[in-house]
Amino acid sequence: MPLREKLISFISTYVLLPLVTLYAYMVKNPKTQEYFESNGILYLGDVSVDYVNDFLHGFGTTEFLTHVYNRVKNAKADLAGCGLAGHNIIIARKPSLIKAILVKDASHFDRVHTMLSLKGDYIVSKLMVFMQGEDWRRTRAKFESAFTPSKVKRSFEQANQLGKNLVAYLTRELDKDPEKGIDFQIAAHKFSLDAAGSSTLNLNTASLQTRAPSRFEQISAKFFLSFDSFANWWKPAFIQWFPRIAMYFKLTVVDKEILQFYGHVTREKMQNSGGDKNSNDFVGLVHSTWQELYGSHVDRPDQEVWMTANLFGMVLPGYKTTQTLMAMCAYILARHQDVQDKLRDEINAMIESNGDEFNFAAVDTLLNLHNFQSYKMSLREKIISLISRYVLLPLVKLYVHIVKNPKTQEYFESNGILYLGDVSSDYANDFLNGYGSTEIWTKVYNRVKQTKADLAGCGFIGHNFIIPRKPSLIKSILVKDASHFDRVHTMLSLKGDYIVSKSMVFMQGEDWKKTRAKFESAFTPSKVKRSFEQANQLGKNLVAYLNRELDKDPEKGIDFRIAAHKFSLDAAGSSTLNLDTASLQTRAPSQFEKISAKFFLSFDSFANWWKPGLIQWFPRIATYFKLSVVDKEILQFYGHVTRENMKNSGGDKNANDFAGIRMALVQTKMMLCHVLKNFKLTPSPETLIPMKFVKSAFPVMDTEEVIVCCTKIE
């Protein structure tokens, strides 16, 4: 940092922060923790000092709120609360809790008798949230009527129309550039604003009508972004310390342009509705509340100013209910998924053009989809990562340089294969930062996918790896050129592993030539056709599994990831070993699922790498003691499979049991054909649509929390 920034940082840390800490202690509401915990609400503690500390270090309000919200999300709580400068803040992730939070218990969440308040603010002091005693009880009863079934039904109709508006907006934007796509956060931001404006004020705020910000967007941004700068905090501080002076000069934290906008809305609504209590907005309720509380009083607040303040204030709880409306939005989008519809149309057209039958050539033209997610490290993992980065990673990089195969790049490029470089250091870096092997290889695969290459290669600790995306290339990769892709003469190998060292991939010279000729026959047209028939049967098994699960609870739906996991295992078992692994027969994990999990998860922990390390450095000792990275239970299972196959087939050359796990590219397409023909993929009805703060402080859908389910096509 420049000297000036260092000086400011020093003053902020050692002067302002201690003062704020003392102040936060003074205004802390002593009943906050008791109230939250007695009502079964997760209590996050008082976050005042954390807020100021982050703020002084350059983090805005929205970043801080995101951090607090993520604490609730990580705890998987539906409801949480915290203290902030004497105020009680509630964070709800379950829409059904909104009524109790915003109406029945509102007086518990923001108390004017705390030392920190804006009771000297000319506008904010008029908000109904500051009411106490009998006034609050009467007002609360009035606003509870806003949540009657008829009002909720009318709100749903509004939300349904907003959903249609959103679909129209997305369609227009996608038509402008179909290949590019659009940022859904922008659409969700506009939807949230229109939802708040329509349900709170019965206004058509028209945010979804244009790409440019609407007037309502601009007005709302003035408030939600106004406190992301330290310079904007002088006014609330002045109002806090000198409330009488502030009230005399009519000071307020609310921008003048906001007041003009809501003042205009107030006048229009008063003229047109006359305070209609049956209108599906809060204007009539606010108007009648003023009449009941102050209509007969001589000393009363200005009606227009009071209503303007409370209409603006009503947008905030209306804004909080946006997560309910976003759930409706997700429902609308699930019924208008262009990508899913286009895929379904493509599949149906493919089936129709082939006489209502599947065939290999047709399915081979369909796209293969791939998804992944990663996770963030805990503090402990970060500490371990820090140590690993400056001790282990330099050693790994040196070792990688020693064992690197100098001919790798030349071979790949001379054969027209996309070369990704040596990924050893990247792998080690990601692994030491808490990513598992599967996440890392997914990341590598996505590099190939993004370049739209059919074939790519990379170096990895002295080994050459090939990544194919086109099934027709598999024959040449696995058979003709296999000797180029994994060389035993590199310094890193598992030639000391009692089991792995016996793999045919380590063969050289004449042995490899004879073996290669044998395995070429596994890719004859008849073998591929037989594998296709297996995949087709697996698709039918998957449909049967989904039907059974959906029949148990048709409305709930099921987590499609479980079904896809079982399908993948059955595909690998059938095409590789000609086994019926029966994963799709029951909801509970099959024996093959359990065995597979032992291997695929065994290297996602750093602690499990001691054995391959020992085998690498001391191969003779490892061979003597018959050490192997393969789990004993896995060996027992495959040993049994080997004995059974030898007895039953006698090594039949025509058996369809080559390493067809590579054929999963085709089988995945088959699975999609069966599923999309018979089912619609939708977000789970049980999924909570939580909010995620962005720079504008508006919540948008967090798609990581949406579970994909399938329902039958009627």
TrEMBL record:
Gene3D superfamilies per UniProt: Cytochrome P450 (1.10.630.10)
Pfam families associated with the record: p450 (PF00067)
Single GO MF descriptor: heme binding
Primary localization: endoplasmic reticulum
Keyword Transmembrane: yes
Cofactor: heme
Listed transmembrane segments: 7-26
GO cellular component, one term: endoplasmic reticulum membrane
Alphabetized InterPro entries for the sequence: Cyt_P450, Cyt_P450_sf, Insect_CytP450_Detox
Signal peptide range: none
Bilayer topology annotation: Peripheral membrane protein
Keyword list, A-Z: Endoplasmic reticulum, Heme, Iron, Membrane, Metal-binding, Microsome, Monooxygenase, Oxidoreductase, Transmembrane, Transmembrane helix
Locations listed in the record: Endoplasmic reticulum membrane; Microsome membrane
Family: Belongs to the cytochrome P450 family.
Protein name from the UniProt record: Putative cytochrome P450 6a17
Organism (species): Folsomia candida (Springtail)
Taxonomic lineage from the root: Eukaryota, Metazoa, Ecdysozoa, Arthropoda, Hexapoda
